[in-house]
Amino acid sequence: MIIFLYKRLVINLDMFKIIEKKALNKDVSKMKIYAPYVAKYINPGQFIILRVDEFGERIPLTVHDYNRDIGTIDIIYQKVGLTTMKLDEKKEGEFILDVVGPLGKKSKINGYKKAIVVSGGVGSAICYPLAKALAENGCKVEVIAGFRNKDIIILEEEFKKIANNLEIVTDDGSNGKKALVTQPLLEKLSANPDYDLVFAVGPIPMMKAVCDVTGKFNIKTIVSMTAIMIDGTGMCGGCRLTVDGKTKFACIDGPDFDGHKVDFKEAATRSRTFAEEERKSREKYCNLFKGVNL
Amino acid sequence: MINNSKVKEPVNVQDPKERIKNFKEVELGFSDESAKKEAQRCLGCKAKPCASACPVGVDIPSFISKIANDDVKSAYDIITKNNSFPAICGRVCPQEKQCESKCVKGKMGEPVSIGRLERYAADKNLNNLPSNINISDDKKHKIAVVGSGPSGLACASELLKMGFKVTIFEALHTVGGVLSYGIPEFRLPREILDFEVQKLKDSGAEIVTNVIVGKSLKIDDLFKEGYKAVYIASGAGLPRFMNIPGEGLSGVYSANEFLTRINLMKSYKDEYDTPIVKPKKVLVIGGGNVAMDAARCAKRLGNADVTVVYRRTENEMPARKDEILHAKEEGIKFMFLSNPMKFFGAEGKVSGAKCVKMKIIDEDESGRKSVVPIPEETFEIIGDTVIVAIGNDSNETIKEASDGINFDGRGRIITNPETCRTSQPFVYAGGDIVTGAATVILAMGAGKTAAKQIAKDVLNHSG
């Protein structure tokens, strides 16, 4: 009983503490957070929602790695908006106010023999745990990772460890080939279309382009849809998208969907619903705390 | 002294012109003097028809007579024997369909203002704990409650009274469920909710936020942690959409999302980060309390032009009468016997709705009027924001909590309504996850029923 009470007390005191923080490049950082309720049941493909402070917005973030025994999760985030900028102000040893999860359905990883995982930018953070899980399940995994330039490449070493082949491309050719991810993808599929899965995560236009390529070869393509959401449990319906003509919620029906059936055009406009408000709040934040303009 | 007035004692409300600029409470409550005068209207009927129409059986004539005799503390104690949250229920119950509908005074004029008197008694005792609460430390058995909405709170409160330890698990970061994310501050100020939640904590309840039972924890984990029983009150939080073209346009919201942005995330306040688009022309689809809440919140985001589109007539609106009245005072427009067929827009953004006129044909078995479209009568209305408030289905996340619980075809947990027992031993359920979306007070009633059964079953089993 005393041990139980002590455990409970320690759990509460450390809840959502930042155990480690590391900048992966100037835009992207990684955090290890104590969140035992998330770590206990999380699987590749699932995500969390966090709120940095009392005034904060609830945003979904992918979980890159986890340790069930010590109750920690690793998140990788790119400083693109107000919340991720505020999150990045937090130092090791400090706390995040709210972390909840695991949310969404876990990715299906069984039954594949040969797969290509295609990531765009910080989408690698979602791709890595999936690629790792596929490899551990006996699937031959090839990875195509696209980045704007060499300065923002992440997870290169991690991917190398688990992938049969890693091809990095950059928009400007500063590392690897100067190409979009669709170019090596098309080359691979043209050479040998015997893949049974393509998994793509990145900006919406990239995922759409990947699906356009794989559609020609009729290869099953799964995309992970990040949408605007508040609760993450199906209550708000903000994350809804049209898949195969039906309304689905990214938070509870996804985030993984059959990419050949997703209405990407609608998803793109819905993701920009608050673009103007978000731009204003980002500017306000930068003016207040950084003295710089974006 | 008896007050023979046929009409209710008037209550102060915020001026509509002022209140559409703020989120402060609309109704300001009775003064001591008007509460006493209103209480003196009660005939004190021996048969207590009002009490029998209360889902939790509050002894209404008795508490009202205490107010008439200036003993507001006793009035509060009488109410809280049956209802631990009178400050909430006094504000949000549909009294005109429950207690006040059976008031004898109502036959020859207006019924007694039971709801406002309940609220008065509660507000005067915000710092007092409910009667017969058991705050002793020697509680043996602990019970887990899933969800901190009205049903979970009521169940927890009853269990505490009966000497159990209680932990409430809440998925969101804030306690209260629909009381927190759904009902706006101008109907239920957050400090009132906070007072009620604090009282529950003071009575010994432990509340753990950010835990989704089904995702973060399973029912088996709770039993392993030593909980003797689990009460599931996870609500009906899955917004229904109309399944018509254009619902995926940007600017079309579920009422849940729109209200959550405002009530839970406080997006209307500058210092909060959650965004909300200030609308100019708003269409709210639906006729219930949620539709009224959404319409009035939209109005407050900068005096928007707000129209409620409802497929039946005002008489069939399920919303509380006071909310409809207040909405009208605030300049909300109503378009009855109209139903959207599709939403249209440009560049992915909504700009209006094509609607069809409806006509009443018949009454269905519940006595509610059925309507059918008149296909040749269609029209268009413009709107840069559309809020769909046509109800909620049950949220199925809870299905992942346990394989031992049986659900019906609509995702609701099957229980015996007398006992709230589910198909899994020592797991109980109540509120919207069992009944589908209903009222705060019905959910509280189920919480009470479950608490009594849990106490009986757990004590029988473990002594």
What does this entry look like structurally?
With about 290 residues, chain A is α/β, with parallel strands linked by helices. Helices cover about 35% and strands about 30% of the residues of chain A. In chain A, the strands form three sheets. In chain A, strands 10-9-8-7-11-12-15 form a seven-stranded mixed β-sheet, with helices on both faces. Chain A has a six-stranded antiparallel β-sheet with strand order 1-2-5-4-3-6, with helices on both faces. Chain B has about 475 residues and is of the alpha/beta class. Chain B is about 30% helix and about 20% strand. In chain B, helix 4 crosses helix 7 (about 115-125) and helix 12 (about 255-265) crosses helix 13 (about 290-300). The longest helix of chain B is centred in the last third of the chain and has 23 residues, at about 440-460.
What descriptive keywords fit this protein?
heterodimer; A: 294 residues; alpha/beta; seven-stranded mixed beta sheet; six-stranded antiparallel beta sheet; 15 strands; B: 463 residues; five-stranded parallel beta sheet; 31% helix; globular
Task: Please render the helix and strand layout as text.
The complex is a heterodimer of chains A (294) and B (463).
Chain A: H1 2-14, E1 18-23, E2 28-34, H2 36-39, E3 47-51, E4 59-67, E5 72-78, H3 82-89, E6 98-103, E7 114-120, H4 124-136, E8 140-147, H5 156-162, E9 165-170, E10 177-178, H6 182-191, E11 197-201, H7 204-217, E12 221-224, E13 240-243, E14 246-249, H8 250-253, E15 256-258, H9 264-271, H10 275-290
Parallel strand pairs in A: 7-8, 7-11, 8-9, 9-10, 11-12
Antiparallel strand pairs in A: 1-2, 2-5, 3-4, 3-6, 4-5, 12-15, 13-14
Helix pairs in contact in A: 6-7
Chain B: E1 12-13, H1 16-19, E2 27-29, H2 32-39, H3 49-52, H4 60-68, H5 72-82, H6 86-92, H7 114-123, E3 142-146, H8 150-161, E4 165-169, H9 178-181, H10 190-202, E5 206-208, H11 219-224, E6 227-232, E7 238-239, E8 252-254, H12 255-264, E9 281-285, H13 289-299, E10 305-309, H14 321-329, E11 333-335, E12 338-346, E13 349-363, E14 369-382, E15 385-388, E16 392-393, E17 427-429, H15 432-435, H16 440-462
Parallel strand pairs in B: 3-4, 3-6, 4-5, 6-17, 8-15, 9-10, 9-15, 10-11
Antiparallel strand pairs in B: 1-2, 7-16, 12-13, 13-14
Helix pairs in contact in B: 2-4, 4-5, 4-7, 6-7, 8-16, 12-13
